[in-house]
């Protein structure tokens, strides 16, 4: 059974995929449970600012859910970026729509989109060891303290944009930060995501790395959600055989969104 809860449609500013096309691809790839998690952003100056149209999406989602009910289980989720300045706006959207689950992700650092932020802190290759990644972890900590979500998305997302494959070094340097964040996630009954999109990028590994997953397990983490972060044709359930092998190796349970928020082996 494959569950892919991280997919972006034309209701995200950075995807032009029709929801029905995503559903058909998921059925073709034998996905059993598919979730839409379009972007919810309120960062001024960003192209995704207030782009999301939940009213239109909900109407289309209900139609697709009925049309394909015999072939696949569909869920409507959301992926939100968090900054303190627009926390209330996020909560208003959460209250307005019947999302099965909510993913919170660090897409911005101090109001700057993470791709630009990484480029800035890594611009001096000769002094890369002095690069300060701590603001990213401050963003993650802020998210982990937010109550109204279910899944912490792609926790080491900086890997996507980093020019330097120093992820193990960064992990060791910020292990205390990861520990604090993961303890809070576990303690509040939330989960983290294994996101296969990293396998499409330069880092060539899933988000998060095995080191982070091992720490999560050591701290008492038992469940993970699974997502491809699809934006384009061919990305749904990307490398999910590999993802599910990782899950089996760590003996995690897979998060399944429903009213009871149960998990299954």
TrEMBL record:
Top-level lineage group: Bacteria
Pathway where this protein functions: Amino-acid biosynthesis; L-histidine biosynthesis; L-histidine from 5-phospho-alpha-D-ribose 1-diphosphate: step 8/9
Record-annotated Polymerase/histidinol phosphatase N-terminal domain positions: 3-84
Protein's GO biological process: L-histidine biosynthetic process
InterPro entries: Histidinol_P_phosphatase_HisJ, PHP_dom, Pol/His_phosphatase_N, Pol/histidinol_Pase-like
Reactions that this protein is recorded to catalyse: L-histidinol phosphate + H2O = L-histidinol + phosphate
Keywords carried by this UniProt record: Amino-acid biosynthesis, Histidine biosynthesis, Hydrolase
Pfam families: PHP (PF02811)
GO cellular component terms listed in the entry, alphabetical order: cytoplasm
EC number: 3.1.3.15
GO MF annotation list: histidinol-phosphatase activity
Family: Belongs to the PHP hydrolase family. HisK subfamily.
Name recorded for this polypeptide: Histidinol-phosphatase
Origin species: candidate division WOR-3 bacterium
Taxon lineage: Bacteria, Bacteria division WOR-3
